[in-house]
Amino acid sequence: MLTCTVHPLPYHANPAHYFAAIRHAPGAVLLDSGRPAAERGRYDLLSAWPLEQLAVLPNERGEAFLQRLRDNLARLGEAQLPAACELPFAGGLIGYLSYDFGRHLESLPAQARDDLQLPDARFGLYAWALISDHQQGSSQLVFHPSVESAERERLIRLFSQPVGHDSTEFHLNGPMTADLEAADYRQAFERIQHYIQAGDCYQVNFAQRFRAACQGDPWIAYCALRAACPTPFSGFQSLPEHGAVLSLSPERFIKVSQRQVETRPIKGTRPRGRDAREDAANAAELLASSKDRAENLMIVDLLRNDLGRTCRIGSVQVPELFSLESYPNVHHLVSSVTGTLADDRDALDLIAGSFPGGSITGAPKIRAMQIIDELEPTRRALYCGSLLYLDVRGEMDSSIAIRSLLVKDGQVSCWGGGGIVADSDWQAEYQESITKVKVLLDTLQNL
């Protein structure tokens, strides 16, 4: 098997230093672990100038699109990294699946309006990447064997010279406003309660959208947001016509490494306190909450079932249950579900059997998605989809695109939501949907 070429560069903890060099290049993309402030992520990964851009067609079946992704990976060709090189990417696919990619995998109603018109999935096929390893304190260019020497030299030169200061800015043309009034939210909440009482479902993740007109460079907005809310599954993906995906997600969807699978669902949230005492009390209350534990366990069971479709029989385990993770704006309750891919399955089979993530739909999943489509007036687009990479070795990592924004057609959209169960209180849930994104909305407002 052919081996990638690796070229060391000076280490920078903040990927903005290197991303500035490719910010305006076609297909510029960054998967960002939120360093140096966020602690859990290890790698940043950025690239541009993809060999192919792949978007799912409006009526294309999910399996057909995933096969197109597979075919493109095969065309790029298998490769390995040099011995003792631990980097996560050897060339391959980087992009997003929107929440609505689920419509290409399952038969769902189409009541919610598709007013943002975002393609349901969009990937680039990349033959190189700049990867920073924060554990080793290294930044390196990784070139797939197919990259010719002239292109390698061009990229080494590009990232070795200082980048001029970008004088662009970003600002809102008005306040971020919710699409739903509190009374509309309450009405939808009561409808969900009716479905739960009738035995249709146990939990439904319900969200509301905030929007404002905006102008300027979305990258400026992303840099301000990552400073205000650093998270280990962040990302920036440029879109055509000056659009972009901006994600500040704390949540992993699925990771595959050497055929070992892990998913880390978040269910259970409390705001950070105004002082250390209140903060500790909020965290303790979350850890002790039987309601939040029950919600979390419900999603763990759902994910065990989803992973079981693609993993070896008997390999699915729950090594971690109800752990506390804290971020600048909220505390979260997090669990871990693991497994081993079956011999005849790959990471894209895992996506087909598990997408969208159960932590942001509800249980049972398909019924919850039907209720979401009925009660949320517009499609979720990027929100609760996934940013991911999948390389030619079969290595994959992916986020759940919560705390995420879409800049498109002169407006910025942001969503906040939460899981509703039988003993939920509408006012508490309404407030939580705002609390989760308040730091993002406030940051944009102050640019």
UniProtKB/TrEMBL annotation:
Gene3D superfamilies: Anthranilate synthase. InterPro entries: ADC_synth_comp_1, ADC_synthase, Anth_synth_I-like, Anth_synth_I_N, Chorismate_C. One of its GO terms (molecular function) is 4-amino-4-deoxychorismate synthase activity. Residues 13-137 form the Anthranilate synthase component I N-terminal domain. Its EC number is 2.6.1.85. It comes from the Bacteria. SUPFAM superfamilies: ADC synthase (SSF56322). Residues 183-436 form the Chorismate-utilising enzyme C-terminal domain. GO terms for biological process: folic acid-containing compound biosynthetic process; L-tryptophan biosynthetic process. Transmembrane segments: none annotated. Keywords: Transferase. This is aminodeoxychorismate synthase. It comes from Pseudomonas batumici.
